[in-house]
Write a structure and sequence with these properties.
- This protein has two domains: 99 residues, Urease, subunit C, domain 1; 307 residues, Metal-dependent hydrolases (TIM Barrel, Alpha-Beta Barrel), CATH 3.20.20.140.
- Helices cover 30% and strands 22% of the residues.
- It is built from 13 helices and 19 strands.
- Strands 1, 2, 3, 4, 5, 16, 17, 18 and 19 form a nine-stranded mixed beta sheet that branches. Strands 9-10-13-14-15 form a five-stranded parallel beta sheet.
- Strand 17 and strand 18 form a beta hairpin.
- The longest helix is centred in the middle third of the chain and has 17 residues.
Length: 432
């Protein structure tokens, strides 16, 4: 148990009135006017916004198998620096997280680092092959208590397999996070959004409909089975329309969007910079605007980073040959602050909902996404809304450098992160 007494002074809780927060034994023991012990650790939060610790539904920590790109330790540092107190680690590792033993290994490695809660995501199918269900029940009953399952990076193409998976996870409250991409529409070499620009650049493109038909299929399967489906990294206006329609009919569907799909557009590919090669691809401005509006109106439930570190020898290739993905953990708050808060589209309380409360609910993480009330676990993110943050990829604590935000300046950034009552990040330094 964390015996440190922490006194956070003058924070604007959820962006509202300023109050002190007292933390003892890893839990919040007082909020408001606080009389703290003399030996307490003081954290001056004047002008800072206090949110419940952020939760990322979608990270790639690469361990086991690709520790040259990221490890659970380095990914946890990046998460702490980004204000996260819990991350869900995707299953496409080597070996794949498709057994209870593999899930417990990831879970234990995260606990040993102790900077954030690392919750493993279980594979839907063995070896991500899309044919035979993985150990869904055993992973759910393991010490890791897996509740989110995904073959992320590979869509579950077979309708019968997807149906059986939804039926199986229904009984223990699980959810399937789907990477929605019909590979027959996308094609084997697709690497960017299909449109006029892809033709001009001579790059194989995949159309928006490749995502949208899977989203439509899966929400109907969720309706048929009475189960839960989560749409990972939504990227098109058409997908937003389908999700909005499904929710209006009471279908149990949730969705996430990444910071990069909220801001970056397909025109960035003109220079063939492989940093901007991501799956699903960057889309045109009309899709980006639809995603922003859907996040603001609640159609999209969560912001998730899809943090995808890659070693230089995998990313620095010709565009068609480079690996898909980009970093996101350390910069997510700054992007959302600049894009959604400073523009007035969202309040900090609404940011708390999409970056903590909803993700924790979707993932079944009961200790996270709480109200910052007395008795709650002390997972707290302090944000400086006035900070000017210029991104330098070489200052990242990740092992990788495929950072799409390098050189950009944002208004708003993480000032401190508190995990289970312990300050894990403060003033630019991650505390081990």
């Amino acid at each position: 148990m964390n015996e440190q007494v922490l006194h956070i002074r003058g924070a604007q809780i959820h962006g509202a009135e300023a109050a002190d927060i007292l933390v003892e034994g890893g839990r919040i023991t007082a909020v408001g006017k606080v009389s703290a012990p003399a030996k307490s650790v003081k954290l001056d939060a004047d002008g800072l916004v206090a949110l419940p610790g952020l939760v990322d539904l979608h990270t790639h920590l690469r361990e086991p198998g690709r520790e040259d790109a990221e490890t659970i330790a380095t990914g946890s540092r990046a998460a702490a620096r980004g204000g996260f107190t819990a991350v869900l680690a995707m299953a496409n590792t080597n070996p794949v997280t498709d057994t209870a033993e593999a899930a417990e290994r990831v879970f234990d490695l995260g606990r040993n680092v102790g900077l954030v809660d690392v919750q493993p995501v279980g594979a839907v199918t063995k070896e991500l092959a899309g044919q035979e269900l993985a150990e869904l029940g055993l992973m759910a009953r393991s010490r890791a208590k897996v509740r989110v399952f995904s073959d992320d990076g590979k869509c579950v193409q077979d309708v019968r397999v997807m149906r059986r998976a939804l039926e199986y996870i229904r009984d223990f409250g699980g959810v399937i996070s789907q990477h929605s991409q019909d590979h027959t529409l996308a094609g084997p070499n697709a690497c960017c959004h299909e449109g006029e620009l892809s033709g001009q650049l001579g790059l194989p493109g995949w159309p928006a409909i490749a995502e949208e038909v899977i989203v439509a299929r899966d929400v109907m399967l969720a309706k048929h089975t009475g189960s839960r489906v989560h749409v990972a990294h939504v990227s098109t206006a058409g997908s937003v329309d389908v999700i909005r329609w499904a929710k209006s009919r009471g279908i149990d569907v949730t969705a996430e969007v990444t910071p990069h799909h909220l801001m970056l557009t397909t025109d960035l590919l003109v220079g063939y910079d492989p940093t901007f090669k991501v799956n699903p691809p960057l889309r045109p401005q009309e899709d980006v605007q639809a995603l922003r509006d859907a996040l603001a109106d609640g159609t999209i439930d969560a912001v998730a980073t899809d943090h995808a570190p890659h070693a230089r020898h995998d990313k620095e290739h010709a565009f068609v040959d480079a690996a898909f993905g980009m970093l996101g953990l350390e910069t997510a708050v700054s992007v959302i602050s600049e894009l959604m808060v400073t523009t007035g589209q969202m309040s900090w309380a609404e940011v708390a909902k999409v970056m903590s409360v909803n993700p924790a609910r979707i993932a079944g993480l009961g200790d996270h996404g709480r109200a910052l009330a007395v008795g709650d676990p002390a997972h707290i993110t302090l944000i400086d809304p006035s900070a000017e943050v210029t991104v330098d990829r070489d200052e990242s604590v990740s092992l990788s450098r495929n950072n799409p935000w390098h050189g950009r300046t944002f208004k708003g950034g993480v000032a401190a992160t508190v995990y289970a009552g312990r300050v894990t990040y403060r003033d630019g330094v991650v505390s081990e």
